[in-house]
Amino acid sequence: MRIAGSLAIVEFPNGFERRFELVSTTGQWRWSSDRDVFGNFLSADYGTPSQWVLSDSHGRVHRIFLRSDPAGFYGQIVDRIELAAFGGGTATYLFSYEAANVYRPAQDDDPLTSAQVAVPLLTSLSYPDGTTTAFTYSLPRDQGTIDAGRMIRHRLVSGGSIEYTYQNVTFPHLEGALYAADGVGLATRRTFGLESAQEGPPGGPAPLGTWTFTTQLDIPRVVGNLDQPRELTTTITYPDGHYREHKFSVYVSGEASNGLNPPSYFEPADYGLPATKIGKIATNPFHTSEIVYRSNGEKLRTRYLHHEKSSCTGCWDVNARVSRIRTKLHDDGGRTETRELSSFDGLGHYRNVVEFDNPASAPMRTRFTNFSATVPGPSQPWILGISSKTTTTQGSETRTQESCFDPSTGLLLRQRIRTGGSRAANDLLHVFSHTNAGDLQLTRHYGGDVQALDTDPNLDLCALPLPAQEQFATYQTYQQGGLSERGWLASDGSVFLRTYSATIDPATGLTITTAGGDDFTWTHNYDVLGRKLSSTPPAGHGGRQVFSYSAAVISGPVPSPARNEVTTFEADGSVLNGTRTTFDYLGRVSKVARYTLNGWVEGVLNYDAMGRSFRQTTATGAETIELDFDPLGRPGRRRPPEGAYHDRVFSYAGRKNSETVKIGKQWNPSTQSVVEIDRTTTATHDRNGRLIEKLITDSDGDWLRETYVVNLDGEIVSSTATDGVHTATWMQPDRTDGRGFTSEDPEGDPIVGYDALGNLTIRDFGQGSIYHVFDRAGRLIEQREGSASGLLWTRNVYATSNGSGDYRKGKLVESLRINRGVPHLPEGTVWVTELYAYEGQGGSRSKVTTSLAAGASGAMPLFSFEATVDRNGAGQPVQNRFPDCLSAANNAFSQCVPLATRTLDFDYALGSLIGVTEHWGAASAEWIDQVSYDLDGNVIGRVLANGWVETNTPHASGGGRLARMTLSHPTFSRFYDSGLAQYDGLGKLVQLGQQRRVSEHAYALEVSPPPADAGTPGTISFEPHRDALGQRLWREYRVPRRFQAYGSAWEMVQEIYVYAPGNRLLWTRRFNDYDAVYFGYSKDQWHLTDAEGLPVRKRHGLSLYGGSPTFSGAVLSEVQMTQGGSEAVDQMFVGGKRIGTADNHALQPKRRFFHYDIHGRLFATSDESGNIEANLAPAQ
Questions:
Q1: How many CB atoms lie under 10 A from the CB of residue 298?
Q2: H or E element, residue 1023
Q3: Contact criterion met (CB below 8 Å) for 145 and 152
């Protein structure tokens, strides 16, 4: 602290100042302002009587109103506080008091003071929304009561309460005296729901939880001599019976303690430190600080500390500080984990930290931080804690990070992340600049493998020359202390891409509007407490959310807990969905509800005495229960909804965590059923939390052990697995450098380079390298072969402005993918272009147009198709549209025939899908007419348009699993019953009716035999060819000939692949050559997706060929079609699942529907008339 005239300034190590001004009329000091090194402040104006006016550096003004103390003890007390609220309003907090006569503590025996004193006790605080929290105090009638005037109950705004009792706490405080009662401490802390022990009838309700605090001094061995108490133990017993002991040193004498211990072991300077020297031996520098016990008295953890002190003769303040920490894991054979600190800099920091354990689970880890040793001058801000370099070493690995700080503010200005131990040209460098208020304004990124940095080891990072131009730069702007804009800068410093913008309420700093890079703007409103009331999108868009808050009712005939509701509306005002959260009387979430077709359905959370959520109950009553928590809060047992048989049992031994669960493994032939056995998985972690071993055992005696070697970044370098018969080892080179970038991909191909943001710039696939080009916002714009000017493979275009109703700004609007070197295609090259539109709700993607062209320059147009999607305000698709073709420009692609557009319409009610209608042009057929749900939202029934009725019975295990499914038709005798489903403790389906779904070798290690000879049927006989992007272009292999009349016993199969942008498979062609000379056929498949990339249709085309094929080496390049026929088969999808096919063969068109069992597996098909086809599984 320093005095500057009438100001007293208290300085903190981060440059923060708290100022007090001298009041000339009273000679007293009063708080004046708080200020940081950037000039941000909060100050007080006392010029108005009975009012304090607070103002800050953003122009906000708040007021504190005072009134006379009714007890007369103080001159004035706080009457109310008025804070600036959203939109210019005021949030008022009201304070209520009760004047009471309170007995002074028993220790006060001064005859000149009265036995009682009149004081104002705060009895309630009312919030701006009308809720109130209240306080009750002990007002005993007898002098000397320890809790006189102390708060004994705190009534929460949620309706519950916390109650306290007190006890004497004794401390030694005079040399030559044994000990004396010197204070009052907490004895119990109890929680209650709506009813309180102090409000209820005599005896009161039982508390929800009770925490008990006891203290005990160790008594001298010889009572009456000068041996003083040395140790105070505070024991906290928790509601679950577990407890902890906290040790404190309380020795006050410097004399020898009857010769039983050297006097140097006990020092007055140790007084109050959270550790004890009792039991210390000369070879053990650690002192017991905390012991964790199970409720049965078994030790679980012991924490030891060692305090280092500065040398100062005759000083009481010797700056005692923790220099060693050791934890003993009693449940892991007494393993110890130690952290040692050394090289104290005198300014509050240890430069060196060493971590190790015994027995060792990992190599010793050392971290060195080069804190600045410069002491600020008297007139300089007191900025401590800045450093120039941090190095972490473990084994042979080292990670180093350099830093440059502004010594006058403590702000980070530069950060260099080294690739290795010393400076390298491809390190990463980040440079930061700030506003005058200390907010981050600009971040510039340099280095990586595409820009060389200065490597001079003698230059300070703050003075290091920078490259002429950064690779990337981001910016941030602020209003009223709140973030108002964020984005990327162009090389000339102008805005390249804005990713976020907001307007800020000047009174509170809350956001009035927010928008992403596409300028889709939401408008927000808040109440006086700053809680959101609504979020509204632009006109014509759904998704508006309204928030409501109901306070707890704690008095009257019908009390009720607090709850919050959120309702989402469509653009036309209809309700899309709703959620409701209910809190218990202690303010914890107790119910979570959804507004559905069945009304409000809710799940319930129950809490144990410790306040842990141990039971979760769904709306249908399915319960998941956590049981048997240990002192560290870890559950010992988890009981699923189906009951105790499938309990998951957890055990812990230091860094080892085990889980035992029932799994379906054995098959009982006599009962035709699956038998479940116990499986235990034990995971062992090192002291840094990295997985180093996993052991799986079961009650059959099978086992599998996996061990891992992990590097400093937590990546697996190698792993070994053994089951006692086989052993397999997988080696993975140490792929991570000091920047966190990998040097090889999982297949061992080298990764050549990264830019300053960590974007992959050059990669070698073994068949040439591919160069990735990114824009100033880090978005991929091109992929080229070899260099930035090499052969083009992909190109992306991003919009710089919005269209009419199209929120495309900043988003991908055009993407090109060139498929080069594809055999049996025109000129061997296909150009695939996709155009994107964003006219959907919330600016979502609404349309994708895909076009194909051929030739070296893409000059030969082939065909195009389009996929669109409309969404409601909740983001759910309400209509998908996708024609087979918009245009067909080349008869070589005869399988692309413009057909009527296919449309899927989705109907919802309160967020639940209730119907899907399919349209082919003017025709329509509803796949699903009606869907019904249980209270948990599981589908329990469906009525299909073709007359089939599906009934689902949920399984007791919950999680959407079903116990049985039946399928029937009102006019057909056909019937399907899946039979009962059995799930094991992992939730895996192990039996369906009489169908077995388990493996007897659940985790025996399977070692594959050597690859078969390349000429063996069914194996690849030519290596699959990949392009520079690593995608498979084509492959050839041999299979048994289908028609033995033609040629040899084998026929050649060739597959070719064409990809859309984003490396998504678009088209495959398979050519079977029957005799390599005369006859064959090809099969094409188109993978069509919706606007979100989900599959919606697969189109198959089949053509038979006769004639003479043409080869170029081993590559089949052309077949002249002379005879045969063709057909096309469409596969339709909803939500990514195939629901039907349409066979468009000219002679026998046919449509087919697909039905799935309770595990999502196809079990039956039916035709469009509702007839079940022959593959129907029999009733079970």
A1: 12
A2: strand 1020-1026
A3: no
Pick the CATH number of 900-1007 from 2.40.128, 3.30.1370, 1.10.3470, 2.60.40: 2.40.128
* Lookup: tokens for 591: 């119910």
**Rg (alpha carbons) of the chain, rounded to whole number:** 38
Q: For residue 91, give the 3-state DSSP assignment.
A: strand
Alpha-carbon gap, residue 698 to 658, rounded angstroms = 12
Cα angle for residues 1017, 1018, 1022 (degrees, 5° grid): 90
Residue 586 C-beta-side C-alpha neighbours within 13 Å: 20
Q: How confident is the model at residue 575 (pLDDT cuts 50, 70, 90)?
A: very high
Give tens-digit pLDDT for 299-353: 999 999 999 988 876 666 788 999 999 999 999 999 999 999 999 998 899 999 9
The predicted pLDDT at position 300 comes to 97
Fill in the DSSP letter of residue 900: P
Query: CA torsion, points 106, 108, 111, 113, in degrees to nearest 10?
Result: -110
Token look-up 């009041």 returns 23
DSSP lists the bridge partners of residue 391 as 368, 400
User: What does DSSP say about strands 1079-1089 and 28-35: parallel, antiparallel, or unpaired?
Assistant: unpaired
Residue 547 near residue 532 (C-beta atoms within 8 A)? yes
pLDDT tops 80 at residue 1179: no
Q: Identify whether the C-beta of residue 363 lies closer than 8 Å to the C-beta of residue 394.
A: yes
Q: Give the residue range(s) of CATH 2.40.128 domains in the chain.
A: 900-1007
Residues 6+ apart with CB under 8 A from 315: none
Separation between Cα atoms, residue 997 and residue 980, nearest integer Å? 13
Distance of CA 1179 to the CA centre of its chain: 45
pLDDT tens sequence across 73-131: 998 999 999 999 999 999 999 999 999 998 877 666 677 778 888 999 999 999 999 99
Q: Is the pLDDT of residue 260 over 70?
A: no
Rounded to 5 degrees, what are φ and ψ at 38? -95, 0
CA distance 817 to 825: 16
Q: Is 498 helix (H, G, I), strand (E, B) or coil?
A: strand
Q: Tell me which residue of 298, 174, 308 sits closest to 243, measured CA to CA.
A: 298
Q: Give the span between the Cα atoms of 876 and 335, in whole angstroms.
A: 54
| Strand residue runs (E) in 374-492 | 387-394, 397-405, 412-417, 428-434, 440-447, 472-479, 482-489
Beta-sheet pairing, 599-607 with 589-596: antiparallel
Least Cα distance to 881 among 912, 920, 843 occurs for: 920
Residue predicted with more confidence, 294 or 172: 294
Contact between 535 and 514 under an 8 Å Cβ cutoff? The reply is no
The 10 Å Cβ neighbour count of residue 476 is: 17
Residues 6 or more apart whose CB falls under 8 angstroms from that of 127 comprise 93, 133, 157, 529
In order of 309, 389, 927, the CA distances from 369 in angstroms are 21, 6, 66
Distance CA 133, CA 157 (A): 5
The single residue listed with the structure tokens 């492959």 is 1035
Residue 131 gets the label, from left (phi > 0), alpha (psi -120 to 50) or beta, of: beta
459 in the Ramachandran plot: left (φ > 0), alpha (ψ -120 to 50) or beta?
A: beta
Q: What are the strands, taking DSSP E only, across 910-948? A: 912-920, 923-933, 939-944
